[in-house]
Amino acid sequence: MALVVQKYGGSSVADAKSVKRVAKRIAEAKRAGNDVVVVVSAMGDTTDDLLDLAAQISPLPPKREMDILLTAGERISMALLAMATNNLGIKAKSFTGPQAGVLTDAAYGKARIVDVVPHRIRTTIEKGQVAIVAGFQGVNRKEDDVTTLGRGGSDTTAVALAAGLGADVCEIFTDVDGVFTADPRIVPTARKIHRVTYEEMLELAASGAKVLALRAVEYARRYGVPLHVRSSFSGAPGTLVSGTYGDLIDPNAPDGDKEEDVMEDPLISGVAHDRSEAKITVTGVPDKPGMAARIFEVVAASGANIDMIVQNVSAASTGRTDISFTLPEGSGPSALAALRDVKDEVGYENLEFDDQIGKLSLVGAGMKSHPGVSARLFGAVRDAGINIEMISTSEIRISIVTRADSLDDAVRAVHTAFGLDSADGEAVVYAGTGR
Predict the structure, then answer these.
(1) Which structural domain range is residue 124 located in?
(2) Where is the ACT domain (predicted)?
(3) Is residue 427 part of a domain?
(4) Residue 434 belongs to some domain of the structure
(5) Which of 184, 283, 300, 379 is the most buried (most CB within 10 A)?
(6) Is residue 428 part of a domain?
(7) What is the pLDDT of residues 271-296, one digit of tens each?
(8) In a domain? residue 97
């Protein structure tokens, strides 16, 4: 008997018909002899509808009250799914995040899980029942207030419960058949990946792939929770996320050959893209020790997470340089305001803000030991007539910034250049969101 944690996204429980379909899948897993715990998101666009409603009531609603409001969506879906499951003869009980023992810090709207104490979930399992848990929420133990986990919070809830319960696998059910080599809405010929390592999935998620939340993958890697990404609309086997790059290397190979002996592992896992970033350029910065440090201290204090950074070589005639960096678009106004406050102190000349950029990332553990990857990437973008504005790399990722209106073309060009197009027809996005 296996302990399985299943997570269903909003598109999987968008309406009554969908809820009944999910209940049948839960019943099948239970009747197959498994212990089953389910984490569910709010139905369809419920969370967006609640956000819109709050905006009509108050221009600046208190964060605590927003968290209480937004957790209502998952409470609705968990109760309805428990009803549907019980109707199929499978006893099920629903639990909020606090009832399930998901403990968080006090950061309303973006709380982080600090512990999972799933006593009531264990008791439910021991009684042979299915526990259905509201995702995206927990409780701040110090204040005893409800909190929400931010974007992708239901994924994170599912992985945290799987780790806390010692589950055999955490199944993430979505509206695509697994993790693809690119977003199938942009590249219809994208190919499904059968297996991907935690490191590769982390890079894909951090680079804009929305099929899995970054924090959920981080949690899974930390606690060794295997993730199985599948569609709730089909019986396709999906994508397994587990292991590390080291697991793919033949342990019996000579030391000097281990990195070369990746057993049939593909060179590139996928191409991810992100439209949610903006670029700030600080022009005319005095090229003196400590100026860059001061700029990024100010940006960090504003609460912005910086992604890519480029500093130009200073002009000999002026002794000044330009520094560009990318950050989440929503963090742009606060970062700009903070930088304006220290203009006299830093002595820069001007600030430029650009929200019409897009980021493309090529990810693959195999690129570590294969030359020519960068050349092929840049050649594909060049041949598509697209200009590259910024570049950053890691051991298994190369990212570039282009104009936003060129991003889709760049993704398709790079995807084809690396032989990632599928010959088996177009990928299916069952509910239209890719999540």
Answers:
(1) 3-175
(2) 280-353, 362-435
(3) no
(4) no
(5) 184
(6) no
(7) 999 999 999 999 999 999 999 999 99
(8) yes
What would the pLDDT profile of 330-381 be if each residue is shown by its tens digit?
999 999 999 999 999 999 999 999 999 999 999 998 787 778 899 999 999 9
pTM, entire model? 0.84
Distance set, CA 113 to CA 101, 195, 283 (Å):
10, 27, 40
Rounded-to-integer distance, Cα 119 and Cα 98, Å: 11
Share of the chain above pLDDT 70, in %: 92
Q: What CATH number does residue 59 fall under?
A: 3.40.1160.10
pLDDT value of position 152:
87
